[in-house]
Structure formats: structure tokens, C-alpha cells
Write a structure and sequence with these properties.
By secondary structure, this protein is of the alpha/beta class. The protein has helices spanning 17-27, 33-48, 54-62, 70-85, 91-102, 115-124, 154-167, 184-187, 200-209, and strands spanning 3-6, 106-114, 130-138, 141-147, 175-178, 192-196, 213-214. The protein is globular.
Length: 217
């Protein structure tokens, strides 16, 4: 049994769950519509260019959750995932997941989005194990701050290595699927890296390294 590791946004789904959630929060009245979305999109452009401080993005997008309970948020996340995220699942992703299950591999999603989003989406794919950005709680309410190492760039490697130690697992024969230049540290670590609908930087690296390039739809 080997690990099959998947990025989430633009890899398993055709979109970014954090951006779509930002829109959802404006619909809920949790955030100021046009101004909030404009700033979120600006931060996402920096992310795509590999120039974003993830702490800045999280501080901004978590502000509408301050003072809300995980239960309150989960109550609206479930229909959001069903109505907005499920329609953008990549069919090729579902087929690849099925093939890894058939092979007896252990499935793990590791994402630079908030854990409450990633776990809810992964559950719809039938994946139980998730590493994502954890949120701090104070007295049962979200504080608007993150907790621990962020699962972003080298942080994904740090969190994965800690998880491997906890689980008594290793990366022998492991696969990792991602679309993003930000995941190069982890892609370079596994035996079987796959570039899925890669951004230009990742595509160039994958072509030079001879990694498989997958066009998922």
C-alpha cells in the first residue's frame, strides 16, 4: 500500500474553494460584497504568481468567521459544498481516486485552504484523511487566526512529515497530484509526481524533469 496524495483546488476540483467560499460569505451577509471580493481576488492573483504571504490571505478571509462557532459554519458549509463545489469535481479526478482505491493505496488530501472547507469537500470524494490550514478557536469560537504550520509551499512538507511520523507511514512509492508551482517542494519529494492542469511554471518544470502532465476534465 502506497500513499496517493492530492492537492485540492484546481486539481480535484475546477476552481478554488476558498475563493468560492468568499463569494458565499458575501451572499450570507458575513462580508461586504464588492470590496471583499475585489480584495480576495487581488490576493489570489498574488497566490497564482507565487508572491503571496499566506498569512495575509488567511487573516483577511477569516475575518468574517470571528465570533462564529464551528457548528454554525459547518451548517452552511454542507449545502455550499453540495450546491457549488460538487458540480465542479473533475471526472478524471474521481476516476484516478477509484484506481488508487482499487490498488489499495491510502488517500490523503493536503491543501492550502482552511480545514473546515477541505475536510467537507474531501468527504464528498470519500476521502477521510486531510491536512489543511487549521483555525484557532477561543472558548468555542473561531478567533480569525490560524494555528500551527500552514499547509502551504514548504509547510506542506513539514506537516506531511509530521503526519508520516504520527501514522508510522513513509513515502515509498507515494504519488502526489498538483496543479501549482507552490507545490514543487512536495512534488520533488515523492516517487511519483504528477502535474495536473499545471500552471506555466509547474508545466515547464514537469517537462524538464520528465514528470507526467495530466489534463483533467
Amino acid at each position: 500500500m502506497a500513499l496517493a496524495i492530492f492537492d485540492l483546488d484546481e486539481t480535484l476540483i475546477h476552481g478554488d474553494c476558498a475563493s468560492l467560499w468568499a463569494v458565499e460569505m458575501t451572499k450570507l451577509g458575513w462580508a461586504d460584497g464588492e470590496a471583499f471580493i475585489a480584495r480576495e481576488q487581488e490576493l489570489m492573483r498574488l497566490y497564482a504568481a507565487g508572491e503571496l504571504a499566506m498569512e495575509d490571505y488567511m487573516a483577511f478571509t477569516l475575518a468574517p468567521l470571528v465570533g462564529r462557532t464551528p457548528e454554525e459554519v459547518a451548517h452552511v458549509v454542507e449545502p455550499f459544498v453540495e450546491d457549488v463545489i460538487e458540480p465542479i469535481f473533475y471526472s478524471d479526478a474521481s476516476r484516478t481516486l477509484a484506481a488508487h482505491r482499487e490498488a489499495g493505496d491510502r488517500l490523503l488530501v493536503i491543501s492550502a485552504s482552511a480545514h473546515f472547507l477541505v475536510s467537507a469537500i474531501a468527504e464528498r470524494f470519500g476521502i477521510d484523511e486531510v491536512l489543511a490550514i487549521d483555525l484557532e478557536q477561543q472558548h468555542g469560537f473561531y478567533s480569525g487566526r490560524t494555528q500551527g504550520v500552514l499547509t502551504y509551499r514548504e509547510g506542506k512538507v513539514t506537516r506531511l512529515q509530521a503526519w508520516l511520523a504520527e501514522q508510522n507511514e513513509n513515502l515509498a512509492g507515494a504519488s502526489f497530484y498538483s496543479d501549482s508551482r507552490n507545490d514543487l517542494p512536495l512534488l520533488q519529494l515523492v516517487d511519483r509526481p504528477f502535474a495536473v492542469n499545471p500552471d506555466p511554471t509547474l508545466r515547464a518544470h514537469a517537462e524538464q524533469a520528465g514528470w507526467p502532465i495530466l489534463n483533467w476534465r
